[in-house]
Amino acid sequence: MKHFSDYLYVQSIAKSSMKELGTFIKEGITEREIVMKAEDILRQKGVERFWYYNIGAFVHVGTRTNISESGRDYRPSEQKVGKNDIVTVDLSPEINAFWGDYARTFIVIEGSAVDEIQLQCQHNSFADEFGHGLHTEKQLRRLFKAYVEPEKTFEEVYLHMNRAIQQLGYVNLDFAGNLGHTIEFHKEERSYFERGNTRKIGEAAFFTFEPHIKHANGAYGFKREDIYYFRNGELKVL
């Protein structure tokens, strides 16, 4: 596939940077500090540009994880990570015009970021709610992979996955209602998983799936984003 190695390289930087960022996130750190640290990590790995309105890390803390906004309007806040809290991070590195796009949700319990195995060992209301949200994001990813085919349209996937979100008791928080987009060389050229987009998914070389959700009765938002592509008709994660 043309440019596959270029996209794989920049996405690998996003993934390793996210992992490194997890050791920095803890109680008392502000949203702005997380943005600055994330962008510093990306630059240390060779990233010189950020394709999403020059934002390297789109970060929200606590109940601000419910906020869905365009990068045109985003300004990181001084809100601090709490003792039991949640942080969403969306990275947008660019190298030689090739994009990475990768988002994850960090869970902070008793002041420190924990992985999913550690979270399962916790027994409090925060851990239960946070764990359920992470589980739902993974479940949506499985449903997405089971449904998506090259001949499906972006609209068909949008409708199917939004029904799945509702059936799981969650709400799509995206300000535009979409669930992902194609990877392009110019952000204005992106196609979205949205109503009315009858383009076939197989026509796109790379695309994201990035549901931004919250439980219908919950207080926090969750994000998980990866880049996908088809190889011999089979859906793969970059």
From TrEMBL:
The keyword Hydrolase applies. Keywords: Aminopeptidase, Hydrolase, Protease. It holds the Pfam family Peptidase_M24. The keyword Hydrolase applies. GO terms for molecular function: aminopeptidase activity. Residues 11-229 form the Peptidase M24 domain. It comes from the Bacteria. This is Aminopeptidase P family protein. It comes from Paenibacillus arenilitoris.
